[in-house]
Amino acid sequence: MIAHSFEYVAPSSMEEAVSYLTISGHSAAVLGGGTMLLPAMSRSEERPSLLVDLRRLGLTEITERTADIIIGARTTYDHILASPLTQRAAPILVSMASGITGGRSITGQGTLVGSACYANPASDIPACLAALDARVLLASDSGTRELPIREFLLGGFRTARRTDEIATALAIPKPRGQSAWAYRKVKLSESSWPIITVACLVAEGSEGSADVTICIGGLAATPLVGKCMVETEGTGSLETMLRHVTEKIAAPWTDELADAEYRALAAPPVARRVLREALVKYNA
Amino acid sequence: MSGDALPRDFQGPKSVGTSVPRLNAEAFVTGAAVYAADVIPSDVLHLRVVRSSYARAKIISIFTKDAERIPGFVTFVSASDMWQFTRPTPSRFSKDRFPGPLDVRPLALDEVKYVGEPVIAVLAESPAAARLAAELITIEYEPLAPILNPIAALTAVEYVHPQWKTNVAAHDVIRVGDPESEFFRPDVVTVSGKLTVECSTSAPIEMRSYVAEWDPRAARLKIQGAFQMPHPSRWTIAHALGLKESQVQIVAQNIGGTFGLKMVGHPEEVLVGFLAMKTQRRVAFVEDRDECFLARGREQTHSFQIAATRDGRITAFRDRMVADIGAVGAGGGWQMALVTAAVMPTVYKIENCLIDCSLATTNKSPWQGIRGYGKEIGNLVVERAVELLAAALSMDPNELRRLNLNPSDAFPYRLPSGMIVDSGDYAPALKKLEGMRRGWPAQRAATAHDETAIGHGFAFELTPEGAAFPGAVPSGFETATVKVDPSGEITVLASITSPGGGNETGLAQLVGDVFGAAPDVITVRQGDTEVTPFGGGNSSSRSLMLCGAAAVAAAQDVLSKLARCAANLLQCDPAETVFHDGEVFSIRSPEKRLIFGAVALAVYTHPFSSGDGVELPLQSTKSYKAQNVRHVPDEQGRINAYPSYPYSVHAAAVEVSHDTGVVRVLKYSVVHDCGTVINPALVDGQMRGAVVMGIGAALWERMETDENGRKVNDRLKNYLLPRALDVPAIEIGNQLTPSMFHPLGMKGAGESGVGGAMACVINAVGDAIGAEAASRLDTIPATPLRILRALRGANS
Amino acid sequence: MRENTLTLIVNGSEREVPRDAQLLLVDVLREDLGLKATHIGCLSGDCGACSVMIDGEVRKSCLNLAVATEGRAVVTLEGQGSVIMRALQAAFISANAFQCGFCTAGMLMAAADLLKRNPEPGTEEIRQAISGNLCRCTGYEPIVNAIQEVAQRK
Fold it and tell me: Which subunits have 3 or more CB–CB pairs within 8 Å of chain A?
């Protein structure tokens, strides 16, 4: 039982949902999958006075919209795994979703948007979304806006979502031309949350070059991003980029499971392997 | 006894030695099995404990006004409200070891000794109201510098328990031969090492809960809950509350795992009783996971040396250990550290040993029992020492083991601590295990292309079982009542409890065999102090070993009474009666058969004719006291508190990533010998569970404390228990060396596996990262960071 | 603001329970409906002892508010009478797939959910399917064997 009392609403339209947030201001919380929020409420770590449940709003679909695929606020990891669209247009998300721990009771209930809003640096979502150049779609009484994920994630457990806003969807740009990807994470054991995540995308650039994006989660409060252009296979520019990304981290992330020392030791070799894997796929 | 004299062939088939299914198994798979939290009624008062947020501080003031305004708040109790009406909670173990007297109370009076120590008990009409009210109680503290480093604590001039004027709770020096001079002989190779073991916890999936009910008219207190030792709990609670033992009833439902957690001495056991008496209402306490994590154990450091001749004969071993036992509570967890010292050097024959063991009190929560009970760490230290020595001698570790194992004809042998190892056959077990590695991935180093290395590791484990510490309540015996009712129902009332191990099934097998009855017709009752005889409940893997022997004796006694009656009815000699599958007949004329129930009924209905000569009642209570226990010190001044010495030898193959230090356990095999086995499947089940617990403790499980003495881990998300994908299948081979000190040849089973798993997994990791790096891997669990540090030339 | 009862569909029957947003589904199942097969081991979604079926999918009942399950079909172990569940229960007994039994209901739920979607899972798939459920007693192997036994029998 959750100790503190709160009001619970399950509005049937987004307009109604955001209007609740406008009225409640800071003291409201949005309930998506609930896999993080409800335990925090059970433990009295979160005490919203109003809980706005999105369950009547649908928002579980994965759809195509011009240059993007749109992932609804209530899309779960299982939805990602089952969708032909993500298989085709964002296979890195499928790979990520297949490695989520906790069994189907978690993968069928936890949502990608919820995880993005929770903004745990030690989780799968931030680096993946950053590598994909995803955007977060936000709605409030005063309209809608879109934020690139890198502007959305402000720090550990901090986002740019205003308290009167609901994150309604993620927009993921569809790949153009030839592309390849790789994703790996480091966990201490099955019970562990991800300590380091590395997502790499290689996309066709101009004049036969390849644009490489690598995103490393868990090293700092927000994903570290490196980009470079590779004209030929295996050049030193990748190593320079990696060093640039993984060294001199202003505010190294640390939590109960792993300190900064471990993260700094484990991230570069894993990133190197992910880069290599993505480039091999790209060149194949 | 006539039972023994019966022609055995007519009584088969025997169930002892076969893997009959668990008694009442259906209830567990249909959800009908009742656990402690299931019996909490809806109209109880809910207890929430306000706990200290400081490791060491004086309590200045307590402010409760805000809490009292919470709807549903009923009352609160502080130590000053309670001390005058209660007495100190006694410890189940003798405190003779301690430097002075120690009063343990459920609530702190003026000074807190650890983060999480109960200070105020809050009662409310709902768990939510109790939680909210507890949050609003403000305690003002004057913080004192906490004593957190156990080494520094040994010589500190500030004390966790000020009346002791020392932080050394106990000190034991175990010595045999002349270890000092052995290490200085020119012809020996000496290896030194350190090993730090971090705190880990039992973490059963069911947390503790209790519900207490005071009947003012009868002046009786009933507490139902997760008690693995109902009678010792009744004794401690009655003492603390100033009641006669007959005024207190303890009832334990099915226990959702314990692994040592649910032994005697938790403050809430006394609190619920006191509060039920005070409020005249039923009072319930349900622990949450964060509170469950207050149970500490295993935290200790070792500095060891081992010496051998160049051809690999181990000549000397010494170890200086300091255990961080936290504050001392009413529980007996601190005793584990003494057992760690006492088990060394385990299976190896080493003539010169010195083990210096100090128990340091610190401002951390008290140790609670945890599976392995200290033995796991003694085995780990010895096996690490052997492994490091093998590397120094450039020998195969198993060759070194073989050279130094106590030989098959050495039993019983005496350990330096005075323990008498009853029986065993070590070398064949190792050979058998080596043969079980077929199909394992080969050992290999990491390469540029493949960051993973594969290592194999071995380890022996000697697991003293059946603890009978002098002064313990009770020490070294268990009791069973066997009765046959007029309907012919055979019931065993056992002094032991079964938190999952299945000893109720073992009792049914043993007793069923005596009566020629299938185990599933036997009723076994446990866990209710009004129903079952006094006993130790569940601990030290001794339940079936001790209570099983008692039950067999009681059953044979009852059988002899039934045999007298059957003989009257069959007009034969009692020695000629055969009990088989619900029927009774004479071996001379098997065609004439009586129904078992009819014979039982005749004892009740026709005591002057058919039942003539039967010594009533048709029930018998017997105790079995362990053999091979000596409380009178031997010539070296040592006692032996353990009757039986099962052993096992373990092997693991692991894969270690040189990039990340992450370890995967790929393969696991073990050869186990616990003497006579009653139910092989249940014993194998215990071994598998213990091995996985050991793997967890070796690699992932750690309870961290910050520089202020606050526990860092508070959830199952940050205390990493092994999950299904973390562990491989565990292949088990068996050997059978009966104990010469038990009527059925039994030894304890249940804890064996934790220490062997810890040691062989660490040895396998060491093999994977290479001997040089392995010599730096000196802290358990071997986390990925520690492995990376070892690989990069730094100590853990 | 609303009527103070909530109608849940539990084990095929409509049940009236208090409409109280603070109640987790597991609270209502255990305390209001007396369905004690569903256990509490963490209240943080980590142990799986409270696993039930919601609309035919395995879910942790500590991660769902009772009010949010209005109109959805909740099935606990008490209400699981399917052929697969009965086979699983028998296999759990014969394989000694439980010791203390506290995690068993949740394990059975996860297993039934797996076999419904994947009638012939391999060992790794079985281990994956129960990876959200903690067992501290068995070391998992007997549970995996029990599930595999049922899968192979079909």
Answer: B, C
Q: What is the CA radius of gyration of chain B?
A: 28
B205 touches chain C (CB under 8 A): yes
Cα separation, A170 vs A178, in Å, equals 23
pLDDT in tens, B397-428: 999 999 999 999 999 999 999 999 999 999 99
For residues B107 and B91, give the distance between their C-alpha atoms in angstroms, rounded to a whole number.
16
What is the Cβ-side half-sphere exposure of residue B621, based on CA atoms within 13 angstroms? 11
A183-199 tens-digit pLDDT: 999 999 999 999 999 99
Between C47, C88, C142, which is nearest B205 by CB?
C47
A276: nearest CA in chain B? B449
Average pLDDT across chain B, whole number: 96
Q: Please give the backbone phi and psi of residue B456, each rounded to the nearest 5 degrees, phi first.
A: -115, 145
- Could you tell me the maximum CA-CA distance found in chain C, to the nearest angstrom? 53
The dihedral over CA atoms of B382, B383, B389, B394, expressed in degrees to the nearest 10, equals 170
What does the pLDDT look like over B322-351, one tens digit per residue?
Answer: 999 999 999 999 999 999 999 999 999 999
Of C41, C89, C126, the CB nearest to B206: C41
| Each residue's pLDDT tens digit, C142-151 | 999 999 999 9
Distance between B227 CA and the closest CA of chain C, angstroms: 14
The helix (run of H) or strand (run of E) holding residue B241 is helix B230-241
Which has the higher per-residue pLDDT, B579 or A238? B579
DSSP-assigned letter for residue B726: G
DSSP state of C49: T
Rounded to whole angstroms, how far apart are CA atoms B645 and B636? 21
Q: How far apart are CA A211 and CA A201, in angstroms?
A: 8
| Residues B34/C36, Cβ–Cβ less than 8 Å | yes
How many Cα atoms sit within 13 Å of A174 on the Cβ side?
A: 16
Q: What is the pLDDT of residue B296?
A: 97
C46 in contact with chain A, both atoms CB, cutoff 8 A: yes
Cross-chain Cβ contact C140/B724 below 8 Å: yes
Question: Closest by alpha carbon to A8, among C25, C2, C50, C61?
Answer: C2
Cα diameter, chain B:
90
Any chain C CB within 8 A of the CB of B697? no
| Sheet arrangement for strand A50-53 | A7-9, A50-53, A28-31
Q: Is the dihedral of CA B58, B59, B61, B65 positive or negative?
A: positive
Q: Indicate yes or no: CB of B135 within 8 angstroms of CB of A189.
A: no
Model pLDDT, residue A112? 98
Cα of C125 to nearest chain A Cα, Å: 10
Could you please report the per-residue DSSP string of B26-64?
HHHHHT---BGGGG--TTPEEEEEEE-SSSSEEEEEEE-
Overall pTM surpassing 0.95 (yes/no): yes
A127-138 pLDDT, tens digit each: 999 999 999 999
Residue A139 in contact with partner chain B when CB distance is under 8 A: no
Q: Name residue B45's beta-bridge partners.
A: B283
Residues of B with CB under 8 A from a CB of A: 126-129, 131-132, 135, 290, 451, 658-662, 699-700, 704, 712-713, 715-718, 720-726, 783-785, 788, 792
Query: Which H helix or E strand runs over A146?
Result: strand A143-148
- What value does the CA radius of gyration of chain C take, rounded to a whole number of Å? 16
Q: List, for residues B549-601, the tens digit of each pLDDT value.
A: 999 999 999 999 999 999 999 999 999 999 999 999 999 999 999 999 999 99
Strands B209-215 and B220-225: antiparallel
Contact A4 B132 (CB under 8 A): yes
Round the CA-based radius of gyration of chain A to a whole number and report it.
19
